[in-house]
Amino acid sequence: MATDVFSALANPVRRQILTSLREGPRAVNDLASQFDLSRPAVSEHLQVLRKAGLVREEPRGQQRFYHLEPLRLAEVDDWLHPFERYWRARMRSLRDMLDKEGQ
Q1: CB-based contact 36:47 (threshold 8 Å)
Q2: What stretches of the chain adopt beta strand conformation (E)?
């Protein structure tokens, strides 16, 4: 069963894992060393990300390396883009109002 992308992204540990993977593929032990969590706990987070299609795993010998799957993140960006325009317009309106009050 696939995991909802937004549910996967809701967790700060999983977001930090994705941030780490921007630099390139990483082994589970390398990722786990960044957190005050057990390796199995980090592995569970990685499985959630994998089920959401945000990462893929590559077995290399006895280790597993994880790669970022940017296509799925691009889908999230596409969905969020209209909201970005909305917030930029709101921030412009706020700036304009503050500029008028400051005169």
Answers
A1: no
A2: 26-27, 55-60, 63-68
Q: Which residues contact 60 (CB under 8 A, 6 or more apart)?
A: none
Q: Which of 43, 21, 24, 22 is nearest to 32 (CA)?
A: 43
Q: Are 9 and 76 in contact (CB under 8 A)?
A: yes
How does pLDDT run across 33-56, given as a tens digit for each residue? 999 999 899 999 999 999 999 999
What is the token pair recorded at 58? 């590559």
Asked if residue 76 lies in contact with residue 40, where contact means CB atoms within 8 angstroms, the answer is: no
Total residues belonging to the chain: 103
Predicted TM-score (pTM) of the model is 0.77
Strand partners, 63: 60
